[in-house]
Amino acid sequence: MKVRIGFGLGTLTPTNDGASFGALVDALEDLRFDSLWLSERLTGPAPDPLTALAFAAGRTRRLKLGTSVLVVPGRNPVVLAKEMASLDRLSGGRFLPAVGLGAPTPVEHGAFGVLREERAGWFDDALGLMRRLWTEDDVTHRSERFAVEGLTIEPKPVQKPFDVWLGGQAPSELRRVGRLGDGWLASFATVDDVAAGWARITEVAAEHARAIDPEHLGVLVTYSHVGVPDAVRAHLARRRPGVDAADVLAVGFEALRARLEAFLSVGASKFVVVPVEDPSDWGAELASLHDAVGDLQT
Fold first, then answer.
1. What percent of the residues of the chain are helix, what percent strand, and what percent coil, each to the nearest 5?
2. What was the pLDDT predicted at 265?
3. How far is 30 from 51, CA to CA, in rounded Å?
4. Is residue 246 over pLDDT 90?
5. Cys-Cys with 274: which of 8, 170, 172, 259 at CB 3.0–4.6 Å?
6. Mean pLDDT for the chain?
7. Where residue 198 sits, what CATH number does that domain have?
8. In terms of residue numbers, what domain contains 174?
9. Number of structural domains, the chain?
10. Would the pTM of this model clear 0.90, i.e. be above it?
């Protein structure tokens, strides 16, 4: 099993200018972290994932580039397929797309222009069309939402197959991963959540005559140096009511390492570690993080 550790920025990060973001990218490349992951929130301060990852691609040679996650409902799937394929091509096959339905908040739904009850159908339809555009020429697709006739997009992605991971852990989301996903990136999840969720995903995949690579189980793990900030506690209460913040947020590098080892014990092997507060010095923060958990990579 190949263990890989990437680094992510949350939706509230203020690291959104060329100097601070560039310093982060340079440190990740120099310290040989596996990947950089950016979350999407139209109504937050975090930079647009595809734009920022294109910036990072041009600044690096080996760092992989992931979305955690990119929202599909509300986007033109042909345009999005072209953008994603272009990023993979220009980065030399380093793009790691994880996609989803978007944050379950009315303001985000309004920003993307898709009603909550319409997101799932939009997502399933768009993902199927994008996959055809990445692998086929002369694509004809007609559905309730999208219609294309004899369409070919170039360039195609470097990666073949161009694996797309999904997020989420509600029952419907786990079923969707099993039906459509090439991997699962869980977030705000306990060790038990990941074990049970992966078992359900594997079961659903088998029901649809599919098999998902057992190495394609990933977890986004948040950490802090100052306890659980009030904003994070409030966010978790809305997103995972009844879940203790201590079960999904590691306080300190020692606790973070222990959390990663616990996820390893249930089969996870790809990790995105995300600080809940941005440091004043990215170089120092990432060097300390690498010393604490870097040797877990295989």
1. 45, 20, 35
2. 98
3. 22
4. no
5. 8
6. 96
7. 3.20.20.30
8. 4-296
9. 1
10. yes
